[in-house]
Design a protein that fits this description.
Layout: E1 4-8, H1 19-29, E2 36-40, H2 48-51, E3 56-60, H3 69-80, E4 84-88, H4 99-105, E5 116-122, E6 136-141, E7 156-161, E8 170-175, E9 178-186, E10 201-206, E11 221-224, H5 236-250
Organism: Hygrophoropsis aurantiaca
Protein name: ThuA-like domain-containing protein
Length: about 270
């Protein structure tokens, strides 16, 4: 059987208008990487029996506390049993009250400059999610800043933002931990409260997801901070980046689709 992936796009805060476009893009590309996507915004699907059917869980532009306590416990159990995780863009603004999720995704979103054309540098040209990219990739998107460095959890950075290629003025609702009800404008905040390290990470992976508890079976984790605009979800290069990350994550062989001894996943 093909690997089965649960795509979760629930939001409890800011909602991206690109979510419908991203769902349609993933539906259209599922066969190209031989996977089955199931799409939901129902938090009740995060229970042990249902999650056991999946080779990966993909958080797609989520925000806020999108799982209750029982859902978080089921998600933790799933990761402990070898489940894989993929996060896209605003997924790093979800579950800020959940320490294992921070470890699994790598870092929480801090703030972003205005949307503008920017350049990201490829740090690893061999990974399936970057092998198709130019060494310096120019695109229109948000260059996320993060509250911490994902490298502290063992993440390997794939893409970095070239901060010299975009303006420092930021139009944001969250800065220095303060949530504003209306956008506030800042000209180069200077000293940042948080430090995501240098070079500026924008996409990364963990060969063994750090959200797993001691004694668990660590699957893979992959995250990209890109994916804000509706238009980018029709960009074949960006889609190849995301699909490459998905394919790499499920190739962990910790789940049933690719390992008959797996404890979760689509049985082969």
């Amino acid at each position: 059987m093909a690997p089965r992936i649960l795509v979760y796009s629930a939001t409890a805060g800011f909602r991206h208008d690109s979510i419908p476009a991203s769902i349609e893009a993933l539906k259209a590309k599922a066969a190209s990487i031989d996977v089955i996507f199931d799409f939901t915004e129902d938090k009740d699907q995060f229970e042990d029996g249902n999650l056991a059917r999946y080779d990966a869980v993909l958080f797609l532009n989520n925000s806020g506390i999108v799982l209750d306590d029982s859902g978080k416990a089921a998600f933790q159990n799933y990761l402990n049993l070898g489940g894989n995780f993929i996060g896209v863009h605003c997924a790093s603004d979800a579950l800020r009250d959940t320490p294992f999720f921070l470890r699994e995704i790598g870092a929480y979103f801090d703030y972003h400059p205005d949307i503008q054309e920017s350049v990201v540098d490829v740090q690893d040209r061999t990974h399936p999610s970057t092998i198709m990219l130019p060494a310096r990739w120019r695109l229109l998107d948000e260059m996320y800043n993060f509250q911490s460095d994902p490298r502290v959890f063992g993440a390997k950075v794939l893409l970095t933002a070239d901060e010299s290629t975009y303006e420092g003025k930021v139009s944001i609702q969250r800065i220095y931990g303060v949530l504003y009800t209306q956008p506030h404008y800042f000209q180069d905040p200077g000293v940042r409260k948080f430090d995501h390290g240098l070079p500026h990470p924008i996409a990364w992976y963990q060969s063994e997801g750090a959200g797993v508890e001691s004694g668990g079976i660590a699957g893979r984790s992959w995250y990209t901070g890109l994916g804000h605009c509706i238009e980018i979800w029709s960009d074949e290069l960006f889609l190849a980046h995301v699909l490459g990350g998905i394919k790499w994550a499920i190739d962990s062989k910790t789940t049933l689709a690719l390992n008959a001894s797996g404890k979760v996943g689509n049985p082969s």
